[in-house]
Design brief:
Elements lengths: L29 H39 L16 H23 L3 H21 L4 H17 L11
Helix pairs in contact: 1-2, 1-4, 2-3, 3-4
């Protein structure tokens, strides 16, 4: 029975069919399936390389800025007075390490080793930031650390220099 009394409601056979939420596999044209499969393959092949290049650019960016203006970074050096010469020296050394790792990642020179070293360096950064409290910067660097860890395990990469 329907809402109104006395009038019969539609039966299951007479109701219009509702569309399924996801299309059946055989409903997608073969060309579209093939294109999606090809796009997935290309993405899987190139994702580690793109991630490596982007991580390298991030390390180059911060390394360059630590070398050009070390005084702006001394506040991040733990345990050492930010205005001391030791803090400046530590920032400059850190900047060189970032720069070398960035070049290695972008150039594809021992990328897994460079990613592993970057992971250790980024872990140090995340820990030193987290000691003073969780912030947006800490979470950003945690994400960059995650990328470095993932790249450490990627065996198949493109645009890599081989000896």
């Amino acid at each position: 029975m329907s809402q109104r009394k006395g009038t019969p409601g539609p039966t299951a056979a007479s109701r219009p069919r509702q569309k399924a939420l996801s299309p059946r596999p055989d409903a997608v044209p073969a060309g579209v399936r093939a294109a999606a499969a090809r796009a997935g393959t290309v993405a899987a092949d190139w994702a580690p390389t793109v991630g490596r290049l982007l991580l390298g650019l991030v390390l180059l960016w911060f390394g360059y800025h630590e070398l050009v203006r070390p005084g702006e970074w001394t506040g991040y050096v733990p345990v050492v007075n930010a205005s001391s010469s030791l803090a400046i020296i530590m920032v400059l050394a850190h900047g060189w390490v970032l720069l070398v790792l960035g070049v290695a990642l972008v150039a594809g020179i021992v990328p897994r080793v460079a990613a592993a070293l970057a992971s250790v360096l980024l872990l140090e950064i995340v820990i030193s930031l987290a000691v003073s409290g969780i912030s947006d910067t800490t979470l950003r660097d945690l994400g960059v650390l995650g990328l470095a860890i993932v790249l450490t395990g990627c065996e198949r990469q493109r645009l890599v220099l081989r000896g």
